[in-house]
Amino acid sequence: MTATSEHVHGHGEGHEVDPRRGFDRLRSMLLIRRFEERCVELYSATKIRGFLHLYIGEEAIAAGVMPSLDERDAVVATYREHGHALARGVPAGAVMAEMYGKVEGCSRGRGGSMHLFSRDRRFYGGNAIVAGGLPVAVGLALAYRQLGTGGVVACFFGEGAMAEGEFHESMNLAALWNLPVLFCCENNLYAMGTALARSESETNLALKAAAYEVSAWPVDGMDVDAVAEAARRATAMLRAGDGPVFLELQTYRFRAHSMYDPDRYRAKSEIERWRERDPIVLARTRLEDAGLLDESAFAGLEAEVEDEIDEAVAFAEAGTLEPVEELARFVTSDPALTPALEGGDR
Amino acid sequence: MSTMTFREATREAMREALAADERVFLMGEDVGAYGGCFGVSMGMFEEFGPERIRDTPLSESGFVGAGIGAAMGGLRPIVEIMTVNFSLLALDQIMNNAATLLHMSGGQFNVPLVIRMTTGAGRQLAAQHSHSLEGWYAHIPGLRILAPATVTDARHLLRPALDDPDPVLIFEHGGLYNVSGEVEPVSSVSLEGAAVRRAGTDVSIVTYGGTLPMVLEAAERLAEGGVSAEVIDLRSLRPLDDATIMDSVARTHRAIVVDEGWRSGSLSAEISARIVEQAFYELDAPVQRVCSAEVPMPYAHHLEQAALPQVADVVAAADALVGHRV
Asked: Does A172 contact B62 at a Cβ distance shorter than 8 Å?
């Protein structure tokens, strides 16, 4: 692994393995992995077009953080957000239909892979401007605090966002106003093709965030239990009014940046070393070592996930295209159709 | 009817909104303890406290984006940006989020946000505090753009802006803050579309915001010379009220667009194009434009005035049009 950040490993090891939670986390990661593998096939078959940014390798982060959130909480994510949407409970069929550009998609086909949204899940996208979602997360947290909803906001972004001004403005605002924002930095070491050490003067990202008087620490982002434990601790701090919190989740994407990326900027050996810490293999092995999972149970899990994805694809295939006559909808609100999420009086 | 300044009318509108709805708050640079860089929110910090008159750091993108999030989270923010030039630091949030989220989310997330900012020249503030860029914003689908030009509109347009489920940008020309006028009661004011500020028969002069007082003066001057000018105050720059413009042109058969923005690729170009598209056969002469010179705004008083549309320019354009016979 490239020594460009303070790496931490295996914080999840040594925790008592909770069979149900361990199984749920494994299933959540497996769903994301197999869903995206299917997306690649469908992309090759030209069922899916546009950009497709894969989360493969990074699944432990979404799968580890989401269980600490409840229905009061909001999620703001990036253009690499299939995993976040699925882990947050957006139905796989609605996500797949969105990829197909169908009206049954979670954004009615208006957003595509990079702009998944779900009002029901308080899933605020799907933002493809690097760092563009961070100020919005700050504002959501401000509203929740002012309205006393008890909600917190989990905001996901890559380490590339930390070079953007909006990162610094948002950290400052959230810390200054003591807002319940969980800043989840997914440090996969590359801002598209530019390595961390080639884009950041300070590569210790938690240290950098801590300069804003924010609680910040690095987490092994390949270990779903370590991520879950960090998220549990962080959200407890947020709910106690000790926010914001910054987590540097150290991870790696196994695939290229997008379907257009020839991946010429990374050594194959580096990718192979990281694959040895595949988060799904780690979680599976831990469950097996604890005697909580065997070959047939894992096969059963795989089959279950496969079925869910088959259903999602069937749902997307059976979906319909929005009539072109509706092109100009959703530029401005139809007040009867789009009341604000809160208040509901518009 | 009460008399007050444009500044006081803007403040009264905000005070009323904050008093009426707990969810409404004002946020921006120096809106609180300082009282607003143009004094618009003077006294509101003391009246409503620091949570509802919220001073922000110098982070235009950060606090505009926070306004978007707060709006989606259930509050009704009024975000103040000091000047339109500074708003460019928040353009990402305004364009890529505020204007776009409703559409990208397939109608799930609307953004009931109001952004107020100062625009325009005339105070020798040079090339980074003086431009009229509201025409750029009027280009963007998903935004409503308002430009109050009268004390009455300053007093009354905020309420419908806050009631709008989508983002509304209000442009306040810095030269208007000290203008005094009578505030008409809301019952007698239309909150939609353009307003005919002076009726006339020979030429339609279309303008908005800070140039309205100048155009009305020009119309007075024209009347002395026997030319009857109709003056249209757009009030809303997006959407544009085509019907009011075309109705006027159909009666006067001549049109001038007066805009403090630059001419090229501008709001004045858009209005001219619409007149040509929709009322070509009503025209007795080509549409004319009076705009700012295409230079960054200079500091020196004489150069700044030379760059800005003046009464004499409007009068000359109108006289030329009326003299133009087909």
From this structure: yes
**Residue A110 with chain B: CB contacts under 8 Å:** 103-106
Q: What is the CATH number of the domain that holds B109?
A: 3.40.50.970
Mean of per-residue pLDDT scores for chain A: 92
Confidence band for B323, pLDDT divided at 50, 70 and 90: confident
Helix, strand, or coil (residue A307): helix
Does residue B24 form part of some domain?
Answer: yes
Which of B8, B29, B60, B80 is the catalytic position? B60
Least CB–CB distance from A139: residue in B65, B92, B103 = B65
In a domain, B296, yes or no: yes
Distance, CA of A252 to CA of A160 (rounded, Å): 13
> Is the complex ipTM higher than 0.85?
yes
Whether B208 and B154 share a structural domain: no
Is the pTM higher than 0.90? yes
Of B183, B213, B236, which residue is a domain's last?
B183
What number is the average pLDDT over the span A267-272? 94
| Residues A139, B71: C-beta atoms closer than 8 Å | yes
Q: Are residues B23 and B45 in the same domain?
A: yes
pLDDT at A18: 80
**How far apart (Å, rounded) are the C-alpha atoms in residues A306 and B215?**
70
Domain count, chain B: 2
Residues of B with CB under 8 A from a CB of A: 23, 25, 51, 56-57, 59, 61-75, 77, 92-93, 96-97, 101-110, 112, 141-142, 144, 163, 165-166
Within 8 A of B93 by CB-CB distance, chain A residues are 132, 135-136
Summarised one tens digit per residue, pLDDT across range A189-217 is 999 999 999 999 999 999 999 999 999 99
Cβ-based contacts of A331 with chain B (< 8 Å): 102-103, 141-142
Among this protein's residues, is B29 annotated catalytic? no
If you average pLDDT over residues A312-329, what whole number do you get?
A: 97
Give tens-digit pLDDT for B148-161: 999 999 999 999 99
Residues in chain A: 346
- A chain contacts of residue B81, beta-carbon cutoff 8 Å: none
Q: Do A142 and B69 touch (CB under 8 A)?
A: yes
Same domain, B172 and B217: no
Q: Does residue B75 surpass a pLDDT of 80?
A: yes
**A120 Cβ contact list (under 8 Å, min separation 6):** none
Cα separation, A22 vs B270, whole angstroms: 61
What is the SS3 assignment for A219? strand
One DSSP character per residue, B186-226 reads: GGGS--SS-EEEE--SSEEEEE-GGGHHHHHHHHHHHHHTT
Task: Look up the CATH number of the domain holding residue B227.
Answer: 3.40.50.920
Q: How far apart are CA A312 and CA A317, in angstroms?
A: 9
Closest CA to B105 of A235, A118, A77: A118
Q: Which of A138, A176, A330 is facing B103, going by the closest CB pair?
A: A330
- The rounded percent of chain A whose pLDDT value lies above 90 is 88
Residue B3 CA, distance from chain mean position: 21
Distance CA A266, CA A54 (A): 16
CB contact under 8 A, A135 and B75: no
Look up the domain containing B289 and give its range.
195-323
**CB A135 to CB B93 under 8 A?**
yes
Q: How far is B229 from chain A (nearest CA, A)?
A: 35
Give yes or no: B46 in active site. Answer: no
Q: Which of B183, B207, B232 is the endpoint of a domain?
A: B183
Do B168 and B203 fall into the same domain? no
- Which residue from B minimizes the CA distance to A337? B107
One-letter identity of residue A15: H
